[in-house]
Amino acid sequence: MASPPPPSSGPASPAPAAATTPAAATTTTTTSSPAAAGSPPAAASAPAADPSSPQPEQSNVQVEVDDVDPDDHDDADSALGDDVQSSTASISSSILKFREENGRTYHAFRDGKYFFPNDEKENERLDLQHHVWLVSLEGRLGYAPPCEIDAPPGRVLDLGTGTGIWAIDFADEHPQSTVIGIDLSPTQPSFVPPNVHFQIDDMDEPEWTFSEPFDYIHLRLMTGSIADWTELFKKIYKNLAPGGWVEVQELGIPRCDDGTFHEGLAIHKAVSLLGAGLEAVGRPLVDVYKLKDYMKDAGFPEVKEKHGYWPSNSWPKDPKLKEIGTWANSSLSTGFEGFLLALSTRDMGWTPAEVQVLSAQARADMNNRRIHTYWPVVCAYAQKPLNP
Ligand SMILES: C[S@@+](CC[C@H](N)C(=O)[O-])C[C@H]1O[C@@H](n2cnc3c(N)ncnc32)[C@H](O)[C@@H]1O
C-alpha cells in the first residue's frame, strides 16, 4: 500500500512539501504490548473531528507535490463504475420501503441508524471506492492470511457489506469458502457467486446468532457507524473460530502537512460538519491509529497494521500516489452531499440547499491541486489464538 514513511519519534510537525516518499512502500507495524505505550497521541481528534487539530506521528507525510498547470483546477471524475442491480426478490416489503428525503433514499430496517444514503448514486460511489482500495492495496482484498489466493477455504463474514462488492470479489477468489455479507440495506446484486450470501441484519445486536463461527471477519469503511469499537471487536472475537482472523480497513480524518488545507476552506468545513454530526449521534469518526488498541482491548494478543493514504486528487508527484489520488477524488468528492444531508438537515438546522452549496464548494476544493489534503488509511488485522 502506498504509504507515508515510518513514524518519527518526535512530535509531528508540518513537513515541507518537497521531500519524496517511496511510492508503493508499505509501512507495517506490529504491536503486542499493552495498549497505547508506544502509540501515537489521539491527535486526529476523532471526537471533534477537527482536521486542523494536532496530528499523530504517523501523519508526518512528506510527499513531493507535482507541478500545477495555471489553468488546472479540476481533476475530472472518471466515468468508471458499473451500476449494480438491487436484490429485492426475497425481502420483506417493509425493508424495501426506503426513507425518501431530499431526493435521496435511506435504509428502512432500523430506520435512522445510518446516515448515508443507500441509493444508486451512493452505491456507484461505493463500488468506485472499492477500486481505490484495490489500487492502494495493490490488488489485494486484505492483508490477513485468509486473503491469500491459496488460503485454505473457510467461513467469512463481511460486516456492513454495502453493495457487497468486497464479499463478491472474495467469493470469486475463494470459491471453496462461504462468504456472508450483512447490512441494514438490501442493496446487493442478485447475480452473485453461489458461495456468497447476503443478509439484512444489524451488527449492533448485542449477541450475534450465526450458526457457526467464522475463520475471517472483515469490515471496511465503518467509521461513523460504530458507537464502541472495543465492544464490536469483542463480539468479533467471540464469533471467530480459534485461529480465525479479523481485519478492519479504514479511512481516517483528512489532514495536510503544508497548511494548504485550512479552516477557511469549504472542504474543511464539510469535514468538520460531518465529524460534529457523527459525534452528536454517538458514532464518531474513528481515530484510525487507535484501532489496534481497541482490538487488543478486546482480547486479540497481537495486531499488525499497514498504513497508507489517499491524496485528495492527483497532487502528488509520485505516479502511484497520483493514481490513488485520482481514483480517491472520483469516489470521495461526489460523496459530500450524501455524507451530510441527513445528518445536518435532520438535527443540526441546515437546509438542503445550504448542504448542497457547501458540498459543491467542498468538491471544488477536492479538485484543487493546490490543496494538499490526504486521508490516512489503516488496515489492522489480528488472529484469535488457537488455544484462546
Ligand atoms: C460506508 S458503507 C461501506 C460499505 C462496504 N463495507 C464497502 O467498503 O464498500 C457502510 C455500510 O455499513 C452499513 N451499516 C451501517 N451500520 C450498520 C449496522 N449497524 N449493521 C449493519 N450494517 C450497517 C451501511 O448500511 C453501509 O452499507
From TrEMBL:
Cross-referenced InterPro entries: SAM-dependent_MTases_sf (IPR029063)
Going by the UniProt record, its keywords in alphabetical order are: Methyltransferase, Transferase
Biased segments, Low complexity type:
10-52, 78-89
Q: Which GO terms describe its molecular function?
A: methyltransferase activity
Q: Where is this region: Disordered?
A: 1-89
Output the superkingdom of the source species: Eukaryota
Q: Which residues cross the membrane?
A: none
Gene Ontology biological process terms, A to Z: methylation
Instruction: State the PANTHER family in the record.
Output: 2-METHOXY-6-POLYPRENYL-1,4-BENZOQUINOL METHYLASE, MITOCHONDRIAL (PTHR43591:SF24), METHYLTRANSFERASE (PTHR43591)
Family the UniProt entry places it in = Belongs to the methyltransferase superfamily. LaeA methyltransferase family.
This one is known as: S-adenosyl-L-methionine-dependent methyltransferase
Species of the source: Podospora fimiseda
